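Quick log. Single chain, no ligands specified.
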Amino acid sequence: MQYIAESELMLNRRGAIYHLDLLPEELGDIVITVGDPGRVKEVSKYFDAVTYRRQHREFFTHTGSLGNKRISVVSTGIGTDNIDIVMNELDALANIDLQARIVKTQLTSLQIIRIGTAGSLREDIPVDSWVASTHGLGIDNLLHFYRYENNEEENQLIQSFITQTQLHNNAALPYINSASVGLIKHFVEGFHHGITVTCPGFYGPQGRILRLGLSDPAFIERLSGFSFGIHRICNFEMETAGIYGMGKLLGHHCLSLSAIVANRISKKLSKDGNAAVDQLIKRTLEIISAT
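-> predicted structure:
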């Protein structure tokens, strides 16, 4: 096996992976990701026990138990640039011998579930509802730095998206990947299903106007109007496509769940987004416990 140099796989003084500050034994086989470091404790308070607490920069991790399952919750911060760090380092903890600096001969597939917030792009998906993302469609550039292939359905979806939105002309070269079939099948009742678009920013890239004009003022209408067979765009946020893309390449099972805190079509904002997220956390942990 090829040796991985110290400059490529960075460890800290205690031998932990650099950004997450975790050792392999401090990570569960099930990983919940949240954007906000403050939300980590809002998830782990429902664990039966917490055995490890680690913190470095915006990356907070609590690892413990939920029934007979070993589970971690990790904060990623905002954006697919951070997802690149988190997904690579989670995989390294599971699949690289950090001391020998070689890839293990037997690989582990983690279950990685994002619990986050998002803006709805459909009038019939109201604030405080939940979305389970069938696909993550990225209009950032993360996955283009890696070698990847899409299946036929994904190829058709992305070509139809480019044709209908014309987004590639001046903003992005979109990419798409699917959720884990084995995970999303458990998240049906109470969840809307559809495509989640992952944006490289919160304001202009999500069609918000403060003081700067937009290059494509009809951007939101183009997204909300997209359809391909049974598929439609439900919402947008800033991490899902990166998680799905990296997860697929690395062999992990990934799912993104979103509490809708704003509806960009009806222009409504949740009165208590934290409550919607808390209910989503509890429902997610109930499903994890039961499967």
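The first helix runs from residue 40 to 44.
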